[in-house]
Amino acid sequence: MGALLGLTAAFTAGVTALVPAAHADDDFGVALNGVYRVMSDGDWAKGNEVKYKQQTVIETWTVTTDCVSPIECTGTVVSDRGWTATARLDDYWVIDHDIPNWVPCPDGTFAPGHQKFMVMGWNRQTELRDTHETNFLVGRNVTKSPSGACGVNKPVVIEMPVWMEKIG
Tens digits of per-residue pLDDT, 96-139? Predict the structure, then answer.
C-alpha cells in the first residue's frame, strides 16, 4: 500500500509539473499588443517571382490582440497609412486586409489587391525563430490581385521581406 501511495504521489507531482503556469497578463507570452514600426523592404521585392524593385514602405501599426491559448490569438491592426486589418496567430502571425484600386489597368480602371503580412518572432542574438518574441518579428508582405483582373488571367503578385519592431 505504501508503494502505491508513493507512486500516486510521484505521478501527481509529475502531472502538476507538466501543467503550464498561469500568466498574469493572460497573453501566454505570444500576444502582440502595442505600437510597432513596420518596414516592407522594396529593395528585395519580387513581382511574379522576378526581382522587381519597389518603394520601401515604413509605417506605424497599433496592434491589439487577445489570446485564448498559446496557439490561438486574434486581434486588430490599425496602420498610420489609413487601413485596419485582422490579425490571427496561426503557425505565425497573419495580418490580412484588402486594398481597393491597387493595380492600374490599361483601360484606365483599377483592380483590387489583397495584402497579407506573415510574421514570426525572431531572436536577434540566436538568429532563430522565437514564438515568445513579441518585440521583433520578421516575415513576408505579399499583395495579390485577383486572377482575371484587368482582363489578364494571371494575378499580379508583389512580395517583399518585412520586419516589425515594437516601439511603444
Answer: 999 999 999 999 999 999 999 999 999 888 888 888 899 999 99
Domain ranges of the chain: 28-166
Torsion of CA 125, 131, 135, 136, to 10 degrees: 60
To the question of pTM greater than 0.70 for the whole model, the response is yes
Alpha helices of the chain — where are they, by DSSP H?
A: 2-18
Q: Can you tell me whether residue 155 is helix, strand or coil?
A: coil
Tell me the three state secondary structure of residue 40: strand
Q: In the chain, where do the E strands start and end?
A: 34-40, 46-47, 50-51, 57-69, 72-79, 84-89, 93-104, 110-123, 128-129, 136-144, 157-166
CA separation for the pair 48, 155 (Å, rounded) = 8
Q: At 48, list the grid cell.
A: 511574379
> How far, CA to CA in Å, does 46 sit from each of 59, 110, 133?
20, 21, 27
